[in-house]
Design brief:
This protein is α/β, with parallel strands linked by helices. 24% of the residues lie in helices and 17% in strands. It binds beta-D-glucopyranose. Beta-D-glucopyranose binds next to loops.
Length: 516
């Protein structure tokens, strides 16, 4: 387990929208390099970069055309090597997005695979044996290639599934076992891709749809067996490199597949973040919404259970948001966002902050670009400077921007938030520093819930001496617990004997009076 993960705080950068260095209207690698000091200053010490490989961008780069080549719109391979270098000089790691489940339908491998003449790529994708053989329950495309067969999709129409074989074989005339030599080459190629970038200085991968490789693999044992091979390779040749999965089942991803971290996404519901899916029939049920008065209990149970199962073996990764989710600030007010960050940065595991969430960037509805659909509203350009054209994202003409910036008068901007000591940005910066400076708050320290009541009050301890208390509601609430020295607070509280009265929308990090 790479030691640096214990202190890691990741920052997810969507390259299209972060910073445009050459005025062509789209973000690029040089732009990211120019903002590394900012990343470090806020306290992030690792970056996850969304796909930046050659692609026709029908799914924003998750449709990879060439795994070994940077998309020209972002720069060159050399620019990416330089990003690794410049980040490392500042003590910041960089992980890339690995998309192993599918390629673009414009990938050269797929062009070869669809030919009638057999070649080394014929089995690289999943094909039925004849175009008329289209068993239901499989996402098959018929009649779109010269080859006599249908190919299987992994996600969108532009993303044919790479062939890692099947676990349970239901149609032996076209399904290969995941142990068959003919499909082994697919995972070997992915290992090669990983080696290529690791040798150039990358620090690991966030693995897209990591559980999607082997088909008919209900318990995911076959898919897990492939990832264990990757972990063995890393342990042997790249012991400092990390593997983070988009699996959303930490016990499987960590204990069985060997990932170092797994994302905690939607199934943890109300606690993890406030996507619109927490708004049910117009009522915001998020734990962090001041009017919801939701108890943290229900979702904590799932979280604690997974935490226990993975303890000592890997980390769960909570996020502030990501490129697929509705932004945090869409349905939480400013205090709610700050409370959410207090939890994100004081829980165990490895936290991930999505670019722009640290200033409370908002969701822009009704736009869609490059297969983003409703996700596009969370992918708009970073707002750097309220006084600069296009809020400092790009010097291009407005009509040439990849996506327009949020031009609403109240749109948050980095420059204004730096100057305001109570801004979300400064809260995130302070919390990052507190986490980095306090061993008790880092990834592998224990978590115990000491109070969790139906009225929304929650208090947990980290390690032996630090505790974090929350009252996200709009009413005053009592926490039956004595606080020690206060390290950080949002909102306010009053000590009342051996109780604490937490004012509305309050979070407090404190040292316990007695070590537990
Ligand atoms: C990524 C999405 C992408 C999909 C297909 C997801 O999990 O996060 O943005 O569209 O995988 O690659």
């Amino acid at each position: 387990m790479p030691n640096w993960l214990k202190k890691a705080i990741f920052y997810e950068i969507y390259p299209q929208s972060f910073c445009d260095s050459n005025g062509d209207g789209i973000g690029d690698l040089q732009g990211i390099i120019s903002k590394l000091d900012y990343v470090k200053e806020i306290g992030f010490n690792a970056i996850w970069l969304n796909p930046c490989y050659l692609s026709p961008f029908k799914d924003a780069g998750y449709d990879v055309q060439d795994y070994y080549k940077v998309a020209p719109r972002y720069g060159t391979n050399e620019d990416l090597y330089r990003l690794f270098d410049e980040a490392h000089k500042r003590g910041v790691r960089v992980i890339l997005d690995l998309v192993p489940g599918h390629t673009s339908d414009e990938c050269e491998w797929f062009k070869q695979s669809r030919l009638t003449v057999r070649n080394q790529y014929s089995d690289r994708y999943i094909w039925t044996d004849c175009v008329w053989n289209r068993p239901p329950n499989y996402p098959l495309v018929a009649g779109n290639a010269d080859r006599d067969g249908c190919y299987m999709l992994n996600f969108f129409l532009c993303q044919p599934a790479l062939n890692y074989g099947f676990n349970k074989i239901t149609h032996p005339e076209w399904q290969l076992s995941y142990e068959d030599d003919r499909v082994r080459a697919t995972f070997d190629e992915m290992l090669k891709v990983m080696r290529f970038w690791l040798d150039k200085g990358c620090d690991g991968f966030r693995v897209d749809m990591a559980d999607s490789l082997v088909k008919n693999d209900e318990d995911k044992t076959a898919t897990a067996s492939l990832w264990r091979k990757a972990r063995i390779m890393l342990d042997k040749d790249y012991p400092e490199a990390v593997l983070v999965s988009e699996w959303c089942n930490a016990p499987k991803a960590i204990n069985e597949a060997g990932f170092h971290c797994d994302f905690v996404l939607t199934h943890h519901g109300k606690l993890t973040r406030n996507a619109t899916r927490n708004v049910v029939n117009g009522v915001n049920e998020s734990y962090f919404c001041k009017t919801s008065h939701a108890s943290a209990d229900e979702t904590l149970k799932t979280y604690l259970n997974e935490l226990k199962q993975t303890e000592g073996r890997g980390y769960m990764s909570l996020i502030s948001g990501n490129h697929d989710e509705i932004r945090l600030a869409e349905t939480l007010d400013e205090n709610g966002v700050k409370l959410y960050f207090t939890m994100l940065l004081t829980l165990p595991g490895v936290p991930f902050v999505y670019y722009g969430d640290e200033i409370g960037m908002r969701y822009l509805p009704q736009i869609s670009k490059e297969g983003g659909f409703q996700r596009t509203g969370s992918r708009t350009p970073m707002q750097w400077d309220s006084g600069a054209p296009n809020t400092g994202f790009s010097s291009a003409r407005r009509e040439d921007l990849y996506l327009d910036v949020d031009r609403r008068a109240e749109a948050p901007c980095v420059n204004e938030q730096i100057a305001d000591s109570s801004s979300i940005l400064n809260v995130v910066k302070t919390l990052s520093k507190i986490r980095t400076d306090n061993a008790a708050l880092q990834a592998d320290q224990s978590l115990s819930v000491i109070h969790c009541s139906d009225d929304g009050v929650l208090c947990y301890t980290r390690g032996k001496e630090v505790a974090v208390a929350f009252n996200p509601t709009d009413g005053e609430k009592t926490l039956p617990c004595e606080m020690g020295e206060v390290i950080f607070k949002i909102g306010d509280y009053l000590t009342q004997g051996s109780n604490v009265l937490l004012k509305p929308q309050t979070a407090v990090i404190f040292k316990l009076k007695q070590e537990i």
